[in-house]
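Hi Y.,

Following your request, here is the sequence exactly as I used it, all 190 residues.
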Amino acid sequence: MNDIEIEIQVKIENAKALADFLNKNAKFKYEDHQIDEYFSPAHRDFTATRPIKEWLRLRDSNGKYSITYKNWYYEDGRSTHCDEYESAIDDILQVRKMFEVLNFKNITTVDKIRKCWDFKDYEVSMDSIKGLGDFVEVEYKASKDNVDPKKVLAEMTQFLKDAGCGKIERNYVGYPFQFLFPNEVKFEEQ
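Below is the corresponding structure, written out as tokens. Let me know if you'd prefer a different format.
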């Protein structure tokens, strides 16, 4: 089950309270600049369905490169978890060339500064997204064997409330969708 990802992405009212809480109670991991390029194959347009289930991403994280494919699962239009396959790559330029030859199109790019902490079973990332604003992602990092994703998602939201974040608004579509289809983005207060 290592290829399963359970996470939430939210806007919070009080980012300072969360940062203060994490600086006191969590282990700071890193701060870096990430450029995420999202691609879609010409023969199967990932953006043609709602909600979008699949993303193919190339990431440049301060000169460390990776490729990731995600396939999301939804219940009542809300994402619960996804299959995630990720690997480091040595030469991002060669992968871009391969994508071009295979007719994969760059559909959007997300440019962000990410600060990341480990807290108990979570990786907590505070993201400042160029053109979108500030967000928080909480990802469950413990064993995913026999875990109920809905229960874990509720626990993540409670963690943010307990940390003093104030109003919490969740979206179920991710950063690339927000750039591609801003008029379709809806946030739900948690």
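The first strand starts at residue 4 and ends at 5.

Thanks again,
Q.
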